């Protein structure tokens, strides 16, 4: 029995062609697969789709999930409804003192209202920016340009020597000004959530001035501390002197004649207990003098009033 798929035809070898029915089935499967693939799409969570049918944009955004469309007639573009970021690098704005920064790098975080993305896509079609996964950032170019302008305007209001001390204020002012600019043209469409100054480098001459200003400030603070210490020490000495003067006043007020006589009597009694001592008492009782003469006075010397 002949089993070979080859047969001799006109003296040559050939391959049996596939049956027409098999070819049709293959073509039908391919067409159906293409139609199914082109008529269905998926929008990821956090994003929205914008449909365009025969050149007309549907202003009703497509929500996340699985959807169908008319193949070859309707196209769908996916836009990011999440928070997006972009960087502005190597900026050289001028400060209030007309000195330019050497390098200013800023990152802006923004998002677009999901129910207004279709309007933004129509109004600012040239401003869309594709992301890494092909999803478009709506109004990217518009927000980028306004952010750059806001940064230059805010920096122009601050002296270059103060910018490094006011980084937080700079970020807040840029965020507010940028939000106001966007709301003026498209209210409640764009939201600026954060502005971060990543690098702020001034001109080398400005850096030297900043360092000198810091050093002088440190010296001034040290001098202020020295003055405060001297003032405190002076206050302490005054307080001590006042205390001594007050104590003397109290002592003087308490030294009455009777008290002095009492003290003299006590002293005389103590002197009488020792050997070879003489006590001379002035006649006016304003004071007395103790005289010691071990060689001439004998034990048990008597107390003699002064002439």
List key phrases describing it:
307 residues; alpha+beta; 4 domains; 7 helices; 15 strands
Tell me what the structure shows:
This protein is an alpha+beta fold. It has 4 domains: 19-80, no CATH class; 84-204, Tetrahydropterin Synthase, Chain A (2-Layer Sandwich), CATH 3.30.479; 205-254; 264-305, no CATH class. Helices cover 43% and strands 24% of the residues. The protein has helices spanning 20-39, 117-123, 140-155, 160-163, 167-185, 204-254, 257-271; strands at 7-9, 12-14, 40-43, 47-53, 56-57, 65-68, 74-80, 84-91, 103-112, 129-130, 136-137, 190-201, 277-281, 289-292, 304-305. The strands form 6 sheets. The chain has a 3-stranded antiparallel beta sheet. The chain has a 3-stranded antiparallel beta sheet with strand order 8-9-12, with helices on one face. A 3-stranded mixed beta sheet has the order 14-13-15, with no helix packed on it. Strand 4 (47-53) and strand 5 form a beta hairpin.
SS strand fraction: 15-25%
Counting copies of identical and different chains, the oligomeric state is single chain
- Compute the number of structural domains: 4
Overall 3D shape: rod-shaped
**Any idea what the CATH architecture of the largest domain is?**
2-Layer Sandwich
Q: How confident is the prediction overall: mean pLDDT?
A: 79
Please outline the major beta sheet.
3 strands, antiparallel
Total strands:
15
Give the H and E element order: EEHEEEEEEEHEEHHHEHHEEE
List strands and helices in order, with pairings.
Blueprint: E1 7-9, E2 12-14, H1 20-39, E3 40-43, E4 47-53, E5 56-57, E6 65-68, E7 74-80, E8 84-91, E9 103-112, H2 117-123, E10 129-130, E11 136-137, H3 140-155, H4 160-163, H5 167-185, E12 190-201, H6 204-254, H7 257-271, E13 277-281, E14 289-292, E15 304-305
């Amino acid at each position: 029995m002949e089993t070979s798929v080859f047969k001799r035809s006109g003296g040559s070898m050939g391959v049996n062609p596939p049956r027409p029915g098999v070819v049709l089935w293959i073509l039908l499967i391919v067409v159906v697969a293409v139609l199914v693939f082109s008529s269905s799409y998926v929008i990821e969570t956090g994003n929205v789709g914008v449909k365009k049918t025969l050149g007309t944009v549907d202003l009703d955004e497509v929500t996340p999930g699985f959807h169908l469309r008319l193949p070859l007639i309707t196209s769908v573009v996916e836009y990011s409804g999440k928070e997006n970021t972009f960087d502005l690098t190597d900026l050289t704005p001028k400060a209030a003192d007309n000195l330019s920064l050497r390098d200013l790098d800023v990152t802006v975080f923004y998002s677009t209202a999901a129910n207004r993305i279709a309007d933004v896509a129509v109004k600012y079609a040239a401003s869309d920016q594709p992301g890494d996964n092909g999803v478009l950032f709506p109004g990217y170019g518009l927000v980028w340009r306004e952010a750059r302008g806001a940064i230059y305007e805010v920096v122009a209001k601050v002296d270059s020597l103060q910018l490094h001390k006011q980084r937080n204020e700079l970020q807040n002012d840029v965020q507010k000004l940028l939000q106001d600019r966007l709301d003026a043209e498209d209210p409640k469409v764009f939201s600026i959530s954060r502005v971060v100054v990543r690098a702020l480098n001034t001109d080398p001459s400005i850096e030297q001035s900043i360092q000198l200003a810091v050093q002088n400030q440190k010296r001034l603070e040290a001098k202020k501390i020295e003055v405060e210490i001297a003032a405190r020490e002076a206050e302490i000495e005054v307080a001590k002197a006042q205390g001594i003067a007050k104590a003397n006043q109290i002592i003087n007020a308490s030294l009455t004649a009777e008290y002095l006589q009492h003290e003299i009597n006590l002293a005389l009694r103590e002197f009488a207990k020792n050997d070879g001592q003489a006590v001379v008492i002035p006649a006016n009782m304003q004071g007395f003098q103790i005289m010691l003469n071990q060689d001439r006075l004998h034990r048990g010397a008597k107390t003699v009033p002064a002439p």
